[in-house]
Write a structure and sequence with these properties.
mainly alpha; elongated; single chain; 4 helices; two-stranded antiparallel sheet
């Protein structure tokens, strides 16, 4: 049957004696296509609750620092997971080097994010001290964070470099590893010196 077309119907009965005459035509009927309700748009997700709502002062600062750290770590974990999946497409030492680099990048982010949280909390405490002590306290907190960030960046570079060194021929591998270690040691020494200089200058 076609939608929008009028139809009438007649009925006959059939038995062992034959078929009866057709009945009178029925009233006209018109088939129509069913109405399909529109699919409602998905509801917008509810905004995440602010874990620091209602806090003030040092409590709010500490809470915000923790939230930023957790967010940075969550993003780094997602990035590492994607990177390691990409590494799985490689084989042998290339896959090992790729995975090592992904893990090192994640570890660096976690440690730097944790150091940043510690600096934020330390600077909040420094703000409660007398002016002279506050300056030294803040400089110490900043220097400690800068040192950690520098060393963690250098550690990631060394870890990645050593993983690449492992893919080289044995004769070149040792020299490559020594170079990576020496550069890391140099970066650590420089970071320690810069931290000491920053604290001394604040005094």
């Amino acid at each position: 049957l076609a939608n929008g077309t009028n139809y009438t119907f007649t009925v006959t009965a059939t038995n062992s004696h034959g078929t009866s005459a057709a009945s009178s035509a029925s009233a006209a009927v018109t088939p129509v296509a069913p109405t399909i309700p529109a699919t409602p748009a998905p509801a917008a997700p509810a905004p995440a609750a602010d874990p620091c709502a209602g806090l003030s002062g040092s409590a709010a600062t500490t809470c915000a620092a923790l939230s930023r750290r957790d967010e940075a770590i969550a993003q780094a974990l997602a990035t590492r997971t994607a990177a390691r999946e990409a590494c799985n497409a490689k084989t042998g030492t290339a896959r090992t080097a790729c995975t090592t680099s992904a893990n090192a990048t994640y570890a660096r982010t976690v440690r730097i994010a944790t150091a940043l949280k510690a600096r934020t909390i330390a600077r909040q405490r420094c703000a409660t001290r007398p002016r002279a002590a506050r300056t030294l306290c803040t400089a110490t907190a900043n220097a400690a964070y800068t040192r950690t960030a520098t060393i963690q960046n250098a550690l990631r570079v060394r870890t990645t470099a050593r993983a690449r060194c492992a893919t080289r021929a044995k004769s070149a591998r040792a020299a490559c590893t020594r170079t990576a270690n020496a550069r890391y040691a140099s970066a650590v020494t420089a970071a320690n010196a810069r931290r000491a200089a920053a604290v001394a200058l604040a005094r």
